[in-house]
Amino acid sequence: MTGRLREPRLPFFVYGTLRAGEHNHDLFLRGRTAAEEPARLRGALLYEGPGYPYAIDGDGVVTGELVTAAPDQYGELTAVLDHLEEYFGPGDPRNLYVRVERRVHTASGTVPAWVYVAAGPVARELRAKGTPIPGGDWSARY
Predict the structure, then answer these.
(1) Pairwise CA distance, residues 96 & 94, whole Å
(2) Which of 85, 86, 101, 125 is flagged as catalytic?
(3) Full 3-state SS string of 46-88
(4) Closest CA to 9 of 79, 75, 66
(5) Domain for residue 138, yes or no?
(6) Is 65 a catalytic residue?
(7) Beta-carbon neighbour count of residue 34 at 10 Å?
(8) Which portions of this protein are annotated as coiled-coil regions (predicted)?
(9) Shortest CA distance to 42 belongs to which of 61, 58, 66?
(10) pLDDT for 142
(11) Tally of helices (H runs) and strands (E runs) in the chain
(12) Which of 47, 51, 57, 133 is surrounded by the most beta carbons within 10 Å?
């Protein structure tokens, strides 16, 4: 845990059920954010999951939102999102997702952000048998 305490306080790039208008947005983000803006993640592909999407490294673009935590909510929001995304820490074999630092693009420029991407075994399974989401926008899939 000590290494996680020194992590940078980055905004979060969300691309699935945490986006505005999706069912987890109000449950987990309402009252905990200082800003939310449209953003895109280059170098990633989006795959269907069981009611939520997975991003993996690839040659596409994923559409989502950049969410900046309210300063007094950062620690709590990080813990809540790690729990939701089943991220237990670097290298933990129980991880469904891993939280990684990536550059995301907004109207005002490119910024570093935390992104939850499919953990290694999940990503391998998606590449082999998964269903890609054309265009990389989970909200526009239907």
Answers:
(1) 6
(2) 85
(3) EEECCCCEEEEEEEEEEEEEEEEECHHHHHHHHHHHHHHCCCC
(4) 75
(5) no
(6) no
(7) 13
(8) none
(9) 61
(10) 64
(11) 4, 5
(12) 133
Per the prediction, the chain carries an average pLDDT of 94
Ramachandran angles phi, psi of 20, nearest 5°: -55, 135
Collect all residues with Cβ–Cβ distance below 8 Å to 81 and sequence separation of at least 6. Answer: 12, 18, 28, 87, 99, 116
How many domains does the chain fold into? 1
Q: Is the Cβ–Cβ distance between 59 and 45 less than 8 Å?
A: yes
With a threshold of 0.85, does the pTM exceed it?
yes
Indicate whether 49 belongs to any domain: yes
Which domain covers residue 23, as residue numbers?
2-128
The CATH number for 29's domain is: 3.10.490.10
Please report how many Cα atoms fall inside a 13 Å half-sphere around the Cα of residue 130, on the Cβ side.
22
Answer whether residue 21 is part of any domain: yes
Q: Give pLDDT tens digits for 40-92.
A: 999 999 999 999 999 999 999 999 999 999 999 999 999 999 999 999 999 99
